[in-house]
Amino acid sequence: MDIAQHVTELIYSHTLRSHILKMPLLNTRFLESHRELRLAHLALSVMTMGYVWQEGENDTVKILPRNLAVPYWKVSQRLGLPPILTHADAVLANWKKRDPHGNLELLVTLPGGDSVRGFFMVTLLVELAAVPAIKSIPLVINGVQCGDAETVTRALEEISQAMEGMTDALKLMHAYVKPDVFYGIIRIYLSGWKDNSSMPAGLVYEGIQAEPMEYSGGSAAQSSLLHCFDELLGVKHEENCAFLTRMRNYMPSSHKHLIQDISLQPSLRGFVQQEASELLTAAFQLCVTKLMALRSYHINVVSCFITIPAARARQLRRQGNSSQEETVSRAPTALEETGTGGSGIMSFLKTVRDRTRDVSLPGVIDMLCINDATLSVQTLI
């Protein structure tokens, strides 16, 4: 924990790797509770990301040393998580109350100063905003099974309201995270060793197996929230199915099981069509609209924090100028066209949003198109 809580300073002093190499081989058998295991996974994750990326994309390592790799692997196996920093670590398990008023602070951090704190905390606020929606999903499922349209309508209204709250929380990203810091400093420490040209062979976990292993870096697709909403509303992602399915392996087991359980329930969309209730139809469509709005705003955030800084970084390189806007220039070139999880980011996000539109009900989809057209005109203005 002493090393994990000083990862940032040790990276900046270029001494994290040497500190880890001096660490004793840790024994995991004294970790008993779920909280202890999650804390251990978080600590070992930030140490691993710092160890791999301490010197940037041009001086990565091929082997994670035994004294870190072995306990990391054992803790990961017990939790059902991969041995890499995940959304479940950096966001869901990386906070504590600073005071009785509920103000939060991070347990561990990575380079990026206030912006990395803002990035993790705002993402946590998005998760917290979704709590009423997650609690309402069983009400929807039970209502469908019992043929109770009124209960389903009320629960869907609760879900759409929570989705709007998630979008509002996401908007805080612009206030608390600087785009050049996120792109130039933070992103590399969220990167993995799968579909990453900086580490094409992956990483050897010494003491586990001799062959390199590949794991994706952090991704919003590792949050179980949108997977739950998609399964509930019947959104199908054929083009991105393999990537999204793989991201479920980066979630806590209970989250993955919940998503699977939702997917096995009778069709909500079919129930709405069968009932032909105006209020129920409107509540379902509002959920689709709010989910599309959330995904559209996420595209806006990605454009601001990745696409635009990437274009500036390429321009600076072409000009041979590394001093102007130095923070952006430090960004890894391997991630310019992809997310840290390895996806082709903008095409992926737009396709996911468009597949959400596809579950709109006949008769209301025309109104959606009108609303989208109005939104586009307002954006241009």
From TrEMBL:
InterPro entries: Indolamine_dOase, Trp/Indoleamine_2_3_dOase-like. Gene3D superfamilies: 1.20.58.480. One of its GO terms (molecular function) is metal ion binding. Heme b binds at residue 298. Residues 317-340 are annotated as: Disordered. One of its GO terms (cellular component) is cytoplasm. Keywords: Dioxygenase, Heme, Immunity, Iron, Metal-binding, Oxidoreductase, Tryptophan catabolism. One of its GO terms (biological process) is 'de novo' NAD+ biosynthetic process from L-tryptophan. Pfam families: IDO. Belongs to the indoleamine 2,3-dioxygenase family. PANTHER family: INDOLEAMINE 2,3-DIOXYGENASE (PTHR28657), INDOLEAMINE 2,3-DIOXYGENASE 2 (PTHR28657:SF4). This is Indoleamine 2,3-dioxygenase 1. It comes from Oncorhynchus mykiss. The gene is ido1.
